[in-house]
Task: structure prediction
Amino acid sequence: MKTEIMPEEWISRDLEPRLVFVYGTLRRGGLNDINRLVPSPVFQGTARVEGCLFDLGSYPGLLLASPSEQGRRVVCGEVYAIDEALERQLDVIEEIQGRPDDEYFRRQVSVKVGEQSCVCLVYEINPTRVQGRALIDHGDWIRHVGGGRP
Result:
C-alpha cells in the first residue's frame, strides 16, 4: 500500500500543497529549523536528491546533479508541505530576487519520500558561489556540523 504524502488538512481544504526539500540549516535541529516558522510546515518524511553539497561556512549550498552526473552523489534532507505564506518566507530567507547573481535559485526536483515520488521546491546554490568551497562528501549537513551547530 502506498503512503499518501498529502496530509488530511490539505485535502479537506481542497488545496494542493507545495512541497519543499530542505537540506541545510532549515532541517530539524538546524540553526533555522523550518519547524519554528509560522505558518507551520507539515513534515512528510526524509528524502535524498542527487547532487553535491558544499560547506559555505555557517550554511551549505546544494548543486543539483546534471543528467551526466546522476547516481554519483546524494544529499540528505527532509520534505515538508508548506503554504504560500511560508513559501514567501523561505524566499526571503534565501534572498530570492529573480536575478542571475542571486545566491540561490528556486528549482523543482523529483524526490522519493519512502516509496512515493513527489516534486519539491528546492533552493539550489548559484554555481559561482561554491568555487573553491569544500565538498561535503557524505551529503548530510546536520551530520557535518555535529547536530546543527557549525
